[in-house]
Amino acid sequence: MRSVEDLVRLFRERGYKVTPQRRLIFELLAGDRSHPTAEEIYQRVRAVMPEVSRTTVYNTLRELITLGELRPVENLSEGGTRYDTNTTHHHHLFCVQCHALIDIDREFEGIELPPEEAAGFRLVNYQVTFYGYCPDCQRADGGRPSQGKE
Amino acid sequence: MRSVEDLVRLFRERGYKVTPQRRLIFELLAGDRSHPTAEEIYQRVRAVMPEVSRTTVYNTLRELITLGELRPVENLSEGGTRYDTNTTHHHHLFCVQCHALIDIDREFEGIELPPEEAAGFRLVNYQVTFYGYCPDCQRADGGRPSQGKE
DNA sequence: TTTTAGTTTATAATGATTACAGATTAGTAA
DNA sequence: TTACTAATCTGTAATCATTATAAACTAAAA
User: Which run of H or E residues covers position B126?
Assistant: First the structure.
């Protein structure tokens, strides 16, 4: 995702207006690496502009996705879709206990699917997700799951 | 996922009763490789036993998941969670157009995350998803993406 | 400043899933 | 086989994330 000023420019170029609500959402997302949900973004927005509606947050997220500046992450936890401000090809490291999600920005060799395994697919991309216990959760209880109601 | 008779045995062992509804769901899932949604399973059930309720389908799916005989797949399409009868470690090949989902049962070398990249995580698993166009969708429109490029 | 098309808000609607309550039944023991 | 009872089933209501709608509002161009 680009800088706030680049996003402002991009929106204007595409005929979208730049409202205070949208600008605030840009500011909150521009430096974010936490992969927040719509609800989390909404709460952060409300802390600054209490009158903003959920609909506006959802609409702005959808617009950013349409423009390629934001990506929904495949559902890794309850509580709704998480959004990724890193729109380049990358991978994920996920804590199965606290649901922390960290970007892995390097490439992996040896992840090719030979034609006989590709079932005739024309491949365009791949994505690796690593599952484990983050340092905090390892300290908290020896790395055993405890948050979920299992 | 085990055979129907093994599932029946497992349910009885654990104190779950084996009803005609559950047995039918076992039969429909036991040989399935299509990663169906709850709704799809419900429709297949209804084709045989029209009076079965959605709730029963959801409940049985939840029980199978609890017993480790079924796994929810990270959301790869609209229309709700898909369920995977393959509960072993494996990977996925996903058609971004028609949402076909195929299991890749082999292992990949070279997918290790060195400690300095693992952010202190204790890793327990990883999962690769390949994205592409399946043979049918390539034929249908030359395999061109209909929206964004990758 | 005026204009107007795009935006915002509040609320209703939707779709997937879960909770609930009363009716039914699988499995067991007599 | 019958009776018993806890588990299960069905239908409906509730919940949660998200989208649709419509009237009020406003950014940005004229």
Answer: strand B122-133
Distances (CA, A) of B137 to A63, B5, B42, B150: 27, 37, 27, 17
Looking at residue B102, its pLDDT comes to 95
CB contact under 8 A, B113 and A102: no
Tell me how far apart the alpha carbons of residues B136 and A144 are, in angstroms, rounded to a whole number.
Answer: 44
Domains of chain A in sequence order: 4-73 (1.10.10.10), 89-141 (3.30.1490.190)
pLDDT score at A79:
84
Verify whether the Cβ–Cβ distance A95 to B121 is below 8 Å: yes
Is any Cβ of chain A less than 8 angstroms from the Cβ of B119?
yes
pLDDT at A33 over 60: yes
Q: Is A149 on the interface with B (CB under 8 A)?
A: no
Nearest CA in chain B to A81: B75
- What is the predicted pLDDT for the residue at A129? 94
Q: Is the CB of B43 under 7 A from strand C?
A: no
Q: What are the tens digits of pLDDT across the range A87-117?
A: 999 999 999 989 999 999 999 988 889 888 9
> Mutate which of B37, B84, B90, B122 to disrupt the A interface (most A C-beta within 10 Å)?
B122
For residue B75, which nucleotide's C1' is closest to its Cα? C16
- Global pTM reads 0.85
Q: Which residues contact B116 (CB under 8 A, 6 or more apart)?
A: none
User: On chain C, which bases lie within 7 A of the protein's CB atoms?
Assistant: 6-11, 15-20, 25-28
Asked if B124 and A96 come within 8 Å (Cβ–Cβ), the reply is: yes
Cα A61 from Cα A29, distance rounded (Å): 10
Give the three-state DSSP class for B92.
Answer: strand
pLDDT digits (tens, 9 = 90+) for A13-25: 999 999 999 999 9
